[in-house]
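Need a sequence for this fold. Nothing fancy.
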């Protein structure tokens, strides 16, 4: 429960990083669950023992009170009262000694007043219902946190390292950067790294949310917690065993629990002053009774008002929802870094997508070759590769990767902004159509450019030999993700520094109508700011040049697996994988969480508004008010836990981002709710 309600701040350690989370409301001493382990089944839960004992004694007292001796029944009620009160009275007193009030204090005063007025059974019922509601809240919060912390179980206990004297097995926590891991078939990867030898498929579904195993080979990055396929991989660690992508995810999400969003602050703003106001209102009711000569009647009503107006359900309306929802998102590779970011994510009506590295793979490839008369495709590519092997241009890698043959070009000279020249048996050049006249290939170059390709012309001996079309291909799920966003009524626009023709050609394939091309970083930020003034806007990018736009957006979303540190730092949300279909799911998930939070706050306020006059007028007694109030609190808790549940529906955004049934899937909900 919110610390302002009735609990103390409790330090929790995750991966040796201290994080403060909201304290528990009237928690049983020693009754907290081990946050690194799954909460026990309810009948073995230590936190439920005293509330359960209180309930059994209360029921026994009611049964005996119907026809049995009055003294044994009173003793049972007193026992039930003591067992229930022990879960919240000591904490309320400690807080009061520090000058802080809370709902626990209201319940303590109400129970003591009921006993003083001779209503022992009602006092016992209040203590039982309040204690069981708080125990259920603790259990719900622990279970939500466990779903997140289960990610840490994806890291194996040990790792096999390659040493000059042979392989050795060490604890995974002892792995250091630059160690060479030997990962056998079916084994988990102990920390982030880069493959240096071997080829295989790696299942990253539990980490990144990508359902299809990713083929990897030398030079490819692999994440901690990924499950190796059939081949043996040698992986150079790029992070220590205690400080990798998984531990970072857990740390970021735990920190998010401590940073409150708009609704959390709203609930706190209402709940915090309500406690002293309720105390004052109850005191005024009691004083009214003294002035009218009916102190017994009005003191009893003052106690009922005390319970009726207590804001405990209001204080827990948001935290349990945020913990559940952010934890569920993290298990599919969507790291939401604060409660505020989560709430803003639920308001998004416009999404701005960066092109390179977000909509596209950020791996330019040769997709077309057109040749002039008397020249072959192989000849054109060999000459281009021989020239581009000496170039630092981003497109050079695509050309050299497209062929195994390289012409032995000499006297290579790079002409900045134009291309590369050299000598074979004669002069050769490779460069842009602005530098080399396409001549008879002009129509082909125009067509290739219109299809979103960057064109490199190859000239041999003064004659245009061919045109090489290079394109950074769309991610295969890009069109589906855009369709999913539009199906939710979200406007989609694309931002890119590319020329307009290339940008519009690629956007058309993705299903995006609104394209802003030839944008510098400051231009992207200006576009996002302008869109944000019209409607809440999310910016999705992965590079350093996207950082200004990410910071300017209502919510910045970084493609974290390949994104730059600047992009991830500027964003409120980070994706650990590349699957763009998570975007519509994450937005739908956040909207649903906001609806749940709003419903919880509305219900909590409605309970106070309805119960207060009924309690003041005497229509409801202490027992009835306690029952209604605590049932409402339990309902708020269960409603908040719904934020972690999975619901599916048909549509473009309903395809599961994680269908793997392998052991890589951590315990807990396996999909983000979308409805």
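Here you go.
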């Amino acid at each position: 429960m919110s610390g302002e309600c009735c609990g103390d701040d409790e330090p929790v350690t995750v991966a040796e990083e201290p994080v403060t989370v909201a304290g528990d409301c009237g928690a049983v001493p020693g009754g907290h669950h081990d946050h690194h382990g799954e909460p026990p089944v309810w009948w073995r839960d230590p936190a439920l023992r005293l509330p359960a004992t209180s309930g059994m004694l209360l029921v026994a007292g009611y049964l005996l009170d119907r026809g049995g001796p009055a003294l044994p029944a009173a003793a049972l009620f007193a026992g039930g009262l003591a067992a229930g009160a022990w879960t919240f009275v000591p904490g309320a007193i400690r807080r009061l000694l520090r000058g802080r009030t809370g709902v626990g204090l209201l319940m303590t005063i109400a129970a003591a007043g009921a006993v003083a007025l001779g209503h022992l059974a009602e006092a016992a019922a209040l203590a039982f219902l309040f204690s069981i509601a708080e125990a259920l809240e603790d259990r719900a919060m622990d279970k939500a946190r466990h779903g997140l912390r289960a990610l840490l179980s994806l890291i194996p206990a040990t790792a096999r390292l390659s040493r000059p004297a042979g392989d050795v097995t060490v604890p995974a926590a002892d792995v250091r950067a630059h160690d060479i891991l030997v990962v056998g078939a079916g084994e988990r990867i102990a920390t982030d790294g880069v493959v240096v030898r071997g080829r295989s498929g790696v299942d990253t579904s539990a980490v990144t949310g990508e359902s299809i195993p990713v083929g990897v080979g030398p030079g490819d990055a692999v994440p901690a917690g990924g499950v190796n396929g059939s081949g043996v991989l040698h992986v150079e660690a790029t992070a220590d065993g205690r400080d990798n992508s998984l531990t970072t995810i857990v740390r970021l999400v735990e920190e998010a629990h401590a940073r409150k969003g708009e609704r959390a602050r709203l609930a706190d703003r209402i709940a915090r002053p309500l406690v002293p106001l309720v105390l004052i209102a109850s005191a005024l009711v009691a004083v009214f009774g003294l002035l009218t000569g009916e102190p017994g009647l009005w003191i009893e009503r003052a106690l009922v008002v005390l319970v009726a107006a207590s804001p405990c359900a209001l204080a827990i309306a948001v935290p349990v929802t945020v913990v559940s929802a952010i934890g569920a998102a993290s298990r599919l590779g969507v790291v939401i870094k604060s409660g505020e970011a989560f709430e803003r994510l639920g308001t998004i009506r416009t999404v701005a997508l960066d092109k390179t590295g977000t909509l596209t793979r950020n791996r330019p490839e040769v997709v077309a070759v057109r040749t002039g008369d008397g020249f072959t495709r192989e000849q054109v590519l060999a000459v281009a590769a021989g020239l581009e092997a000496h170039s630092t241009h981003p497109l050079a890698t695509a050309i050299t990767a497209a062929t195994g043959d390289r012409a032995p070009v000499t006297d290579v000279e790079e002409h900045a902004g134009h291309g590369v020249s050299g000598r074979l048996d004669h002069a050769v050049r490779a460069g842009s159509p602005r530098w080399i006249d396409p001549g008879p290939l002009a129509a082909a170059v125009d067509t290739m450019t219109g299809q979103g390709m960057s064109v490199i012309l190859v000239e041999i001996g003064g004659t245009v030999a061919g045109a090489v079309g290079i394109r950074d291909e769309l991610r295969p799920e890009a069109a589906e993700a855009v369709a999913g966003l539009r199906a939710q009524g979200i406007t989609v626009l694309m931002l890119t520094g590319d020329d307009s023709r290339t940008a519009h050609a690629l956007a058309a394939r993705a299903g995006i109508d609104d394209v802003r091309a030839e944008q510098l970083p400051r231009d992207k930020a200006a576009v996002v700011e302008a869109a944000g003034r019209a409607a809440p806007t999310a910016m999705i990018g992965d590079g350093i040049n996207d950082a200004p736009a990410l910071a300017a957006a209502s919510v910045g979303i970084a493609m974290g697996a390949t994104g730059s540190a600047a992009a991830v730092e500027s964003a409120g949300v980070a994706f650990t994988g590349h699957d763009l279909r998570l975007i519509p799911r994450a937005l739908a998930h956040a909207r649903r969480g906001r609806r749940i939070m709003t419903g919880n706050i509305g219900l909590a306020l409605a309970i106070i508004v309805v119960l207060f006059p009924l309690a003041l007028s005497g229509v409801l007694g202490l027992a009835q008010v306690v029952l209604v109030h605590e049932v409402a609190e339990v309902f708020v808790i269960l409603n908040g836990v719904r934020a972690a549940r999975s619901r599916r529906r048909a549509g473009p955004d309903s395809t599961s981002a994680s269908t793997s049934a392998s052991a890589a899937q951590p315990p807990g909900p396996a999909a983000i709710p979308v409805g």
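For context: The longest helix spans residues 582-617.
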